[in-house]
């Protein structure tokens, strides 16, 4: 099984520096992904396609459910609340996501991780909080799983961590704390995405084949330690994946799919990735 995710986010290409409007993003999926011209973007028994849309867009896209169903495109969200019950302004309940037809939740995306890191660093410049953020993601995963949602959990090192040769250590920490204390059945609903943070942003240099292969092997090793059934584990690669490098990346042993940001904002480019040739 291969999985391709379109991570439709705000302003993904910094040099472009313009925000996509609400309607442009809706049109991208409806007229771009779902138009007859791009039937190339369609799920099959061997290939799943998930559109991770911002919360604001989920109801609109759900209205196109029959079209999404025809092309077997699934809906994903970009976050979920860690709160199980109670009053929490701003938070998004997994119950609502289920009701809107969401199948999968993206948790731990590096841009979300960075938001927490920035706040915590400002509060405590010398503090060590990486594990606390992993534990927060763990609670989000638990909450989503409890409501029957599937997870794509993102892991990966920053540029600074890579330079300090800490990739192995960082991935291990993210998996050990983020995926701690789940049973095999629950872990069967978790997909992992390896997203080196320095490669995210579209058009950036991507890791060598060897680096991707090593990171994916390492993820498998750590996933085994927390109790995954390795035969079923899916690991996606994310970070400047596009139509020109998808074939090369997908040929690396251990890569089972891609999480695509910038290039997913153009339906032809996304189709080129999904229908990559080796
Ligand atoms: P990118 O983003 O494809 O623009 O590098 C990847 C992601 O956001 O997951």
In order across it, which strands form the biggest sheet? 1-2-3-4-5-6-7-8
Q: Strand count, sense and closure of the main sheet?
A: 8 strands, parallel, barrel
Distance between the termini: 17 Å
Q: Any low-confidence stretches, pLDDT <50, length ≥5? A: none
Strand content: 15-25%
CATH superfamily: Aldolase class I
Please estimate the helix content.
25-40%
The 3D shape can be described as globular
Bound molecules: 2-phosphoglycolic acid
Query: Mean pLDDT, nearest integer?
Result: 94
Structural class by SSE content:
alpha/beta
- According to CATH, the fold-level topology is TIM Barrel
Tally of individual helices: 12
Oligomer: single chain
CATH class designation: Alpha Beta
Total count of strands: 8
Order of helices and strands: EHEHHEHEHHEHHHEHEHEH
| Rg computed from alpha carbons, rounded to a whole number of angstroms | 18 Å
CATH architectural designation: Alpha-Beta Barrel
Whole-number total of structural domains: 1
Fold blueprint:
Blueprint: E1 2-7, H1 22-33, E2 47-53, H2 58-62, H3 65-70, E3 73-77, H4 94-99, E4 102-107, H5 110-123, H6 130-146, E5 150-155, H7 159-163, H8 167-178, H9 184-187, E6 190-194, H10 209-225, E7 235-238, H11 246-250, E8 257-260, H12 267-274
Parallel strand pairs: 1-2, 1-8, 2-3, 3-4, 4-5, 5-6, 6-7, 7-8
2-phosphoglycolic acid (PGA) is lined by residues 7, 12, 195, 200-202, 238-241, 259-263.
Notes on the structure:
The chain has 278 residues and is an alpha/beta fold. The protein has one domain: Alpha-Beta Barrel (TIM Barrel). Helix 6 packs across helix 8. It is globular. The site of 2-phosphoglycolic acid has 15 residues, from strand 8. 2-phosphoglycolic acid binds next to strand 8.
